[in-house]
From TrEMBL:
It is an enzyme of class 3 (hydrolase). HAMAP family: Allantoicase. It comes from Streptosporangium album. Residues 16-165, 185-313 form the Allantoicase domain. This is Probable allantoicase. Its EC number is 3.5.3.4. GO terms for biological process: allantoin catabolic process; purine nucleobase metabolic process. It comes from the Bacteria. It catalyses: allantoate + H2O = (S)-ureidoglycolate + urea. Pfam families: Allantoicase. Belongs to the allantoicase family. The keyword Signal does not apply. One of its GO terms (molecular function) is allantoicase activity.
């Protein structure tokens, strides 16, 4: 395990990623590469094309060349590390792989991306069967797409592309936005407890389908309370806070408070301690808030949140 895996997976399907093209997917579909969760496997489950795999698997090449898959990152950003996982592929994994990246704005087709300037972020490297492979990336440029190359053919279960989100916020000039959203560059940078699930879940796109897609802490046995610290997309003024306890029927916090800071020293109250209900989206107006860069959400005494949205506008600090 590498430190970069604590950062968001920019390619993840649930964050908007897509495998837009592949050279071949004769045995198993390319879309599996960016599915959430660990790859599954059930022996002796054969379809018309052979054993069913939770991954991307190509035919056996009988001519020179190699296979590739083209991934549009759901969240553009600076890539800090890549994981290539060959889980369950034992006699049919590729012996080598590499990863390239490029930055193309707008909505290019796979054919249009062929003319892009690609840079190698993971050189051709050895792979093992049924194993996770971790590769640090040092390129500081912002990227929107990656290309996974396997040499010469075989199966790869998952591709993880971890990094710092770098969206184009000029789209929101003159408009409001969710300052906390992962898709807009927000990030949970501190948390008291993440026993059951990651705190970054609360700023992920969409709605939580079940408890595991939110943030849930262990049960506290002291007089303290749990909290998370969110770095906003940029300095801004929060005008509306959404605290969503959907799916948390018996483990929602009893109450919540919100504070903010622009310098890490002076903290201002945005929302006083306020009662919460289980399995409920709550929306609270915030008036006369100062410009802040970080927001702390305190829950009392413990429990879980499905989503946190902090709607407002970007401002100069």
């Amino acid at each position: 395990m590498s430190e970069f895996t604590t950062l968001p997976d920019l390619a993840l399907r649930t964050l908007g990623g897509s495998v837009i093209a592949a050279s071949d997917e004769s045995f198993a579909e390319r879309e599996s590469l960016i599915r959430p969760g660990r790859p599954g496997f059930q022996a002796h489950t054969f379809g018309a094309k052979g054993q069913v795999y939770d991954g991307w698997e190509t035919r056996r090449r009988r001519e020179p060349g190699h296979e590739w898959a083209l991934v549009r990152l759901g969240l553009p950003g600076v890539i800090r590390g890549v994981v290539i996982d060959t889980a369950w592929f034992r006699g049919n994994y590729p012996p080598h792989a590499s990863v390239e990246a490029t930055a193309v704005e707008g909505y290019p087709t796979a054919a249009e991306l062929e003319a892009a300037d690609w840079v190698e972020i993971v050189p051709k490297s050895d792979l093992k069967g049924d194993a996770e492979h971790f590769f640090d990336v040092t390129d500081e440029r912002r990227h929107t797409h990656v290309r996974l190359n396997m040499f010469p053919d075989g199966g790869i279960a998952r591709l993880r592309v971890h990094g710092d989100v770098r969206p184009d916020l000029t789209l929101y000039d003159g408009l409001g936005l969710d300052l906390a959203a992962l898709a807009n560059g927000g990030l949970v940078v501190g948390c008291s407890n993440e026993f059951y699930s990651s705190p970054n879940n609360v700023i992920a796109p969409g709605l939580a389908r079940h408890q595991a897609e939110g943030w849930e802490t262990a049960r506290r046995r002291d007089d303290g309370n749990d909290w998370l610290l969110i770095r906003l997309a940029g300095p801004g003024v929060v005008k509306l806070a959404e605290i969503d306890t959907t799916n948390l029927l018996f483990n929602a916090p009893g109450s919540v408070s919100i504070t903010g800071t622009a310098d890490g020293v002076t903290w201002s109250g945005l929302l006083p301690r306020t009662r919460l209900q289980p399995d409920t989206p709550h929306r609270f107006r915030i008036d006369d808030a100062p410009v802040v860069t970080h927001v702390r959400v305190d829950v009392y005494p413990d429990g879980g949140l499905a989503r946190v949205r902090l709607h407002g506008s970007l401002r100069e600090s």
